[in-house]
Amino acid sequence: MIKKVNGFEILVHWTMAVSFFILVISGFGFMFKLEQIGSAFGGFAQMRDIHNWAGVVFAAALFLTTFHYLPVALKFTSDDVAWLRKGGGYLSKKAHVPPQDEINAGQKLLYFAVLFSGIAISVTGVIIWLRPNMDDLNKGVLLSFLIHNISFIVYLIVSPIHIYMATLANPGTLRIMLSGSVPLEWARKRHAKWVQKMGY
Amino acid sequence: MTNHWIDLRNADVILVMGCNPAENHPISMKWIMKAKENGAKIICVDPRFTRTAAKADTYAPLRSGTDIAFLGGMIKYIIENNLYFKDYVVHYTNAAFLVNPDFRGPGELDGLFSGYDEKGRKYDKKSWSYQMDESGIPKKDMSLKDPNCVFSLLKKHYARYTLDMVSSITGTPKEKLVEIYELYGSTGRADRAGTELYAMGWTQHTTGTQNIRAMAIIQLLLGNIGMAGGGINALRGESNVQGSTDQGLLFHILTAYNPVPTAALTDLKSYIEKHTPATKDPKSVNWMGNRGKYITSYLKAIYGNNATKENDFGYGWLPKPDEGMNASWLNLFFKMYQGKFEGFFAWGQNPACSTPAATYVRQALGKLKWMVNVNLFDNETGSFWKGPGMVPKDIQTEVFLLPASSSVEKEGSLTNSGRWTQWRTAAIKPMGESLPDSEIANELQIRVKNLYKKEGGTFPAPIMNLTWDYSEKHEEGTIGKVDIHRVAKEINGYYLEDVYDKKVDPPKLLGKKGELCATFAHLQADGTTSCGNWIYCQSYTQKDGKIINMMARRGKDDPTGLGLYPKWAWAWPVNRRIIYNRAAVDMNGNPWDPKRAVIKWNATKEDPNTKKPGVWEGDVPDGPAPPMADEKAGKYPFIMQAHGLGAIFGPGLADGPLPEHYESLECPLQENPLSKQRINPSASLKIQQELGVDLAKYFSCDLRYPFVATTYRVSEHWQTGVMTRHLPWQLEMSPQLFVEMSEELARDLKLNNGEKVIVSSARGKVTAVAMITKRFQPFKVMDATVHQVGLPWHFGWQYPEDGSGGDSANILTPFVGDANTMIPESKAFMVNIEKA
Amino acid sequence: MGRMSILVSPELCIGCRGCQTACKEWNQLEGEKTENRGTTENPPDLSTRTYNKIRYVELPSEKNPVRLLFVSQRCMHCGDAGCMKICPAPGALFKTDEGAVAFDRDKCIGCRLCVTSCPFNVPRYDEKNKISKCHLCADRISQGLTPACTKTCPTGALRYGDRDELLGLAKKAGYTKVYGASDLEGLGAMYAFMDPPNIYGMKENPAIPESVVFWDNVLKPLAYLGLGGAVAASLLHYVAFGPKKYEDGEEAKKDEQ
What is the pTM assigned to this prediction? Predict the structure, then answer.
């Protein structure tokens, strides 16, 4: 078993995931005025408070997770091009991609989607919540509302795919975020370059 | 009002001058806007573009205090352009009367009428009389051509009021004058009615009474008196001030405007002689010929069985002022300032804010031994000793505050401007220890009586002999609660014996002993009837044994369609809704304007009272007599005038039989452009003389105070603001004293909108917020620019407690009054304005 | 019942502000601490304690020193209400049977999004962070009474009644166009204007902000579609392609070759 991800990162990931769920569900509740969701949160007023503070937690977790992957994510190599060209190997039963580094292009894409949407959704969330002093507050809040909702939709599209990829589509992936370790062979199949680099 | 509120909707032209109904009588705008909806034209003449002006079809600016010039020009225009209603003028007014050839007017005497005593500042009115024929009836020239006839004198008098002269006095552009004269003059046609609305804008001047007279003349010339949509309509300033003057709360009158007897009239007979007008003309009803019946019935009402023929019905117990004594508001406070009063009841008023030269009034209050402040709230009067500039430890006045109930906590009647007396019940019980004024007065009266009983006194009879049985049965020794219905019934009056009409044979029973009177026509001079107020007789009456509170009726029928609503409440006199309505028909009793027929003579229908053919339909007619053309019994329409006709020439007033323009006491002009008399020659300057002021001061301008100022009210507040300043919903809308001024003046003074300024006059100074606006425009007067400003008088130092509201504008106003009524000249005086 | 509305006629308004007082009295709203800023107009703005006010509009005039208009400012009770559209809390803003946009403070979550979405800048919030605005006296009109402001108005500048009847009245009085007759699916407070709306200080063609409309019409459906689509795509992929399993050594070796 080799360690792919440390304990801190696991904690941060789940913190992010849990707060994310709270945010998405309450977000849906607000967007579509769903009484049942409101009741589950103890009323819409309480749901708002929970949504706002969950957002703070989410933003903090996002901040903490950013730097872990940032250097790797920023590197765009021929491996990424190859991965993308092959559709990550997901477009056929037999397709395979060349050896990948610590994270593949798809994972990098997810990272940036989460990061940018996360920044957008957090900043706009704060503006909607706290309504800070600005020249045209209404305009600012309206713009924030728009961006907040667009970011929401990005998350709604990206999250199911991420969850699918991390579970059903790639069995054995979930382990990374539970114990942080994976079997060496498993890692060698999916992130051969990284295994090599690490000297395993 | 000669007419009433709803009637405003019947007018073709409404002249709003001397008042601001949109701001001070907003409900009346319902009817004014309805008139507009029906095609009526609204004319607004005001120094300032008010909220009323915003709704008017025509607006004209006018410098405060120049209304007579404006109206005089209108009279000239109406006569010259033949806009007057000829038949009406000839037959219904005294236009045809021949005047004493010794009479001279201001045109000939450079501003004076004949008979002026300069030292006494009054007139010997001998020459203001009519030429009489052998029968003692004024001579007439029905062609209106005789140089001594009233009409010719009128023409001559106003010949000087040319458009140029009027424009240069008033500051109103000539085109506006012509536009308005033409429009209002159009109501001289029989089928067009013009009404005039006025309030303090006209009355609060040294020439106030003459302002109204000028309009009365115009309305008579145009034939608008008695007509639906016509009349002279005073917008009274409080919901029941009409009631208060009706019930004699002014210093110079008893109830029903019967004059207060002066000391020289030592017995009832001399009172009746002095105050009963006489006429030899059989066609003149001369209703005040009945004075004796009313004063006697009044005495029987207040002194009851104590008033007998032997003791002159108690006439000797009536308080009487000395000859020439004038107990008007200004004189009262002047005397108080001189320390001549021990005690003072400030009953439902706030003189510390409502009286001119308010600072001195507040000092005057400090000279009292005691004061009773009866009010809903403490106010600047009750707390005068704590006010700005006061040193409490030097003030000896003992102040009592008696909390009074508000109008919604009391039962009783309110009489509105239209003479409608409407009964109200209490909505809630009085709060805390507050009491209705009637209860306070009742308890006071009982305690005074008890003191007299115990201790005696100089002259207890006038109090001890008052009947005052307003309480229901109560325990001996306790103070009974007032049954306000008993008061109302006493006002209406009773038949004290079986009363008969002895003029018919056999004598007809008019009323049974003990029953409530049916009409003042039944009142007697022999003590067999009582009536607290003859014009209210019928307000609480008895019909077929059943007692009816006429004031409480709420019938919604309107048979004439003119909005008379004869079954809604009750109007004095005898439910006549439009008075002088006999002038609304021609001499045969046919309405001048059939489309708006107030009354109409039906020659064939049987009169239920006389059982003879011929009866009036519509409103209650001004007397049941047949139309004027009836040889035997026809009567002139103006039944309250001795001679029966509308008075164009009015010799009864102190300052002249015809209105003449004089400048206000404090004014921007060194000279009156019209004559040598700068100010009203009859305006009393006695107070000033007593103060040792050099009267020459009043005949020139004080350069320290270069701007004309006026005071007014706004919708959001009421009077001195004692009630409305305590209402957060009202105070937030108008929170502070402000001074409205033109942009031009603000530019000259380098002021910014909303900044604090100090407004000062010869009486004192106040801090106000500058409201800089286009609504005030500078006036072009005699080739000079005259600036005018205005302030509301709703504020006082006492509340809001932080003083942010500002103080009363009456700190600035002048201590001089109208020549006839002594109402203060609050509407035109001079001020200065500086940055605070 | 037919939709009820208020017809505001500035030409009849005398600026007496009985409407301001009547509203405060009925709703028991506090008076505000104000100061005179050199104008008759006060309080300076709508607030949580001031549901309606009169604006004093002064315009140049040829024949008079000024043209003085009194224009009532109040909630417009829009047919298509921006505040209701964006409000995330069900029942916080709702339409009554009469067509009024009323609110339930207990359900309001204080997010203030309605403030941004109202074309007329009406909603205000109190210290408890709850929405306040004119509710067309919902408690009165539900009992068949008229709103307090219309009951007080002496000249009929404020009239409450059946929407079609009011439009008929306006037509009879000579107003060819009534502001709010059809804007935003008809405004519950219509104005009989003699001149273009901007003369009275009201905006021509009032509309809910485009971003809110876009959000309501496009983004909301897209949320469902996006989520659903992503889930469906994933499931579909699983069914079609199944999980990615690497056989021992085989695939890696293949790639290495």
Answer: 0.94
